[in-house]
Design brief:
single chain; alpha/beta; Cytidine Deaminase, domain 2; six-stranded mixed beta sheet; 4 helices; 6 strands; globular; transferase
């Protein structure tokens, strides 16, 4: 049974896990994205820039497909955006796809047995990544 996703926004702790710390504007966009991704169907990926939702993918059998849909919806505006995921990355493929389209920062819960692979991929592309320790995944 999944526990209630009732953590107050003020209680969300961001833990930077990459070499690069996010800039203040990225933090603001990540917090906005984190609030929004909570309300999207499972396997949710959203892209945000300047507190504007640019693209969203959700309800897919894999997170990478959701990321591809979000990227398509965002179009060229995706460059310089931040990515939010409702749950951890089981593989580093979403981070690599994000790097390929110009995402600069990622917010996700963390908690995968392969977190180190995602962190290394983010470091490779100078993407700031933070973990919240709380998932929004809805099943």
């Amino acid at each position: 049974v999944q526990s209630s996703d009732s953590l107050a926004e003020a209680d969300v702790t961001l833990k930077t896990v990459t070499k690069r710390e996010p800039a203040q504007a990225e933090i603001e966009d990540m917090l906005f994205a984190w609030r929004a991704v909570k309300h999207v169907k499972s396997n949710a990926i959203i892209l945000v820039k300047d507190k504007t939702l640019l693209g969203m993918g959700a309800g897919q059998p894999s997170r990478i497909i959701s990321a591809q849909i979000a990227k398509e919806k965002a179009g060229e505006k995706v460059k310089g955006s931040v990515l939010a995921s409702d749950a951890m990355f089981p593989f580093s493929d979403v981070v690599e796809a994000a790097a390929g389209c110009g995402v600069t920062a990622i917010i996700q819960p963390g908690g995968s047995i392969r977190d180190d692979e995602s962190i290394k991929m983010a470091d490779k592309y100078n993407i700031a990544m933070v973990f919240t320790g709380t998932r929004h995944f809805r099943h």
